[in-house]
């Protein structure tokens, strides 16, 4: 076997990619990512055993976040960037080790410098290095949750918000995945603790986003095109968007969002930019054709990148932050921390305007503040029976045909139900005309995947208003679609908050061993999805 990765929903045969990633990740990149994660574990061991405080580890914290983020599905396919990051982390690790006395564990002391030696080392430290299937399953679930946590912590950090407790937990969790004294019960407890910190990191990012850009508000977003040359921005990082909008002011170049950047339109701050014109396209997996017809430069601030099929499209793709793709220009911050997007802007001016692929608009902006402003209306509608049930359908989209389930599910839901959504999963139903209930749209989009936090705040508020003791007594059902590791941290956060009977699809994670899957079923009532009609019947009971 040349590689082994089973971290995402599209893993080969539902069990693991062994030759090449379904996502397009090569064997070499997969192995380098394994080694990068192993190096993070080594640093974490030194931090924990040396009782080093995150407050004193500024650059180390940031490089650890970046490394974890680089290994998230569809974030970074660039072997050279990952190799450089391994070297950087080994230097950091060795510096830390000089000041800490500890028994030399391999992760905290191995040395490699050439690509060949890295690949050789990687072969023995990946997922399968843990032999016991259940321990492996729990360790990997914790690591995937921590990856999602790191992604959200990085966005918050970019906005100047950091929480040392979150960094300390990342070290604790990553070091624990090498600790052979921990048994399955210990790791189940750590999994829930990962969820606890998942709630903290999403709250931190929510605070970072809303304190800088205002609270999302009901917004109509155009999905057609204007006639100007344009840049498309994808991913989740709002600070990159802000800088791009500033630099394109009065240049004649328009800015469109793609995929997970759509919710940026909901923030009051961005509404002052008249050249911030709309959203182009759909969820990440449709980018191959949508990037062809967009014609202008594309900026990836994070995942999800799909390997471009043509040189022409590749030449228009730029990456920044933790994202990367071989042969695409990568924008790094200048000394002052700001990014220079002039290369994209100059390129955009030479290229045609986007082709129109659809027309009309979509409505979103139903994050917690906006929904709570409508609380009276919502509560009245529930009390009168006009709203029978809410369906949380947050999470990710993906290319599998089986995800048509979610479109059909949304279409067939009774008309007295409301869908609460967040993440790119929404593209399965946000352009259907599902109507409204007394003026409340039947699809309420809170924002990006991290804004699933908003849905939790809304649920907790409803619990308070209705005077309930248990969040599970609310008329809310959870039918979550997952794809990558940010969805793992969202799921663990929901479990930590005590949410039961979550349905997870389109397939259960390949990284769950049968025993670990049983624990999730028995303790939390987690289940997969079935047929649309019977699932709706079950949910409505
Ligand atoms: Fe396979 Fe997903 Fe890993 Fe890519 S990220 S190699 S598709 S399991
Ligand atoms: Fe989508 Fe990649 Fe997860 Fe942020 S863009 S939700 S899949």
Q: Which descriptors apply to this entry?
A:
alpha/beta, Substrate Binding Domain Of Dnak, Chain:A, Domain 2, Rossmann fold, 3 domains, 6-stranded parallel β-sheet, 15 strands, globular, binds iron/sulfur cluster, binds FE4-S3 cluster
Q: What's the topology here?
A:
Layout: H1 27-49, H2 58-70, H3 79-98, H4 106-109, H5 115-122, H6 133-158, H7 164-176, H8 184-213, E1 219-222, E2 230-234, H9 238-248, E3 254-257, E4 276-279, H10 287-294, E5 298-300, H11 311-314, E6 317-320, E7 329-331, H12 342-349, E8 361-364, H13 368-373, H14 375-384, E9 389-392, H15 404-412, E10 417-421, E11 436-437, E12 440-441, E13 443-445, H16 452-465, E14 476-481, H17 485-496, E15 503-505, H18 514-524, H19 532-540
Parallel strand pairs: 2-3, 2-5, 3-4, 5-6, 6-7, 9-10, 9-14, 10-13, 14-15
Antiparallel strand pairs: 1-8, 11-12
Helix pairs in contact: 1-2, 1-3, 1-5, 1-7, 2-3, 2-6, 6-7, 6-8, 6-17, 7-8, 8-17
């Amino acid at each position: 076997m040349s590689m082994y990765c089973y971290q995402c929903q599209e893993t080969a045969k539902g069990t693991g990619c062994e030759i090449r990633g379904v996502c397009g990740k090569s064997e070499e990149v997969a192995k380098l990512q394994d080694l990068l994660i192993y190096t993070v574990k080594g640093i974490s061991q030194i931090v924990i055993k040396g009782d080093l405080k995150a407050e004193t580890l500024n650059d180390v914290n940031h490089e650890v976040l970046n490394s974890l983020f680089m290994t998230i599905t569809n974030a970074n396919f660039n072997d050279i960037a990952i190799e450089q990051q391994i070297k950087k982390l080994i230097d950091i690790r060795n510096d830390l080790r000089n000041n800490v006395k500890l028994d030399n564990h391999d992760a905290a002391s191995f040395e490699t410098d050439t690509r060949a030696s890295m690949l050789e080392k990687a072969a023995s430290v990946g997922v399968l290095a843990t032999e016991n299937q259940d321990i492996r399953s729990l360790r990997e679930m914790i690591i995937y949750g921590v990856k999602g946590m790191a992604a959200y912590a990085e966005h918050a950090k970019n906005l100047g918000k950091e929480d040392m407790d979150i960094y300390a937990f990342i070290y604790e969790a990553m070091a624990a995945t090498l600790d052979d004294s921990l048994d399955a019960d210990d790791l189940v407890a750590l999994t829930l603790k990962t969820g606890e910190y998942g709630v903290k990191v999403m709250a931190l990012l929510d605070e970072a986003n809303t304190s800088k850009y205002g609270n999302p508000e009901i917004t109509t977003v155009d999905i057609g095109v204007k006639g100007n040359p344009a840049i498309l921005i994808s991913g989740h990082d709002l600070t990159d968007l802000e800088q791009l909008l500033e630099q394109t002011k009065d240049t004649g170049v328009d800015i469109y969002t793609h995929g997970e950047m759509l919710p940026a339109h909901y923030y009051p701050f961005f509404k002052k930019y008249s050249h911030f014109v709309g959203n182009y396209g759909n969820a990440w997996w449709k980018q191959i054709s949508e990037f062809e017809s967009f014609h202008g430069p594309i900026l990836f601030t994070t995942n999800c990148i799909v390997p471009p099929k043509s040189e022409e499209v590749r030449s228009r793709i730029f990456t920044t932050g933790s994202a990367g793709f071989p042969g695409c220009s990568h924008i790094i911050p200048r000394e002052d921390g700001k990014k220079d997007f002039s290369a994209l802007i100059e390129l955009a001016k030479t290229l045609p305007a986007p082709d129109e692929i659809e027309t009309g608009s979509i409505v979103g902006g139903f994050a917690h503040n906006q929904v709570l402003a409508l609380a009276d209306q919502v509560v009245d509608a529930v009390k009168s029976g006009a709203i029978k049930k809410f369906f949380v359908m947050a999470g990710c989209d993906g290319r599998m045909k089986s995800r048509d389930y979610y479109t059909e599910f949304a279409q067939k839901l009774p008309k007295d139900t409301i869908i609460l959504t967040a993440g790119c999963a929404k593209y399965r139903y946000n352009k259907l005309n599902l109507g409204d209930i007394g003026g409340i749209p039947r699809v309420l989009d809170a924002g990006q995947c991290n804004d699933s936090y908003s849905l939790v705040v809304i649920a907790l508020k409803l619990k308070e208003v209705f005077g309930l003791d248990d969040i599970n007594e609310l008329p809310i059902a959870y039918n979550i679609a997952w794809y990558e590791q940010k969805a793992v941290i969202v799921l663990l956060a929901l479990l930590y908050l005590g949410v039961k009977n979550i349905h997870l699809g389109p397939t259960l994670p390949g990284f769950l061993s049968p025993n670990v899957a049983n624990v999730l079923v028995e303790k939390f009532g987690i289940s997969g999805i079935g047929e649309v009609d019977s699932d709706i019947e079950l949910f409505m009971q």
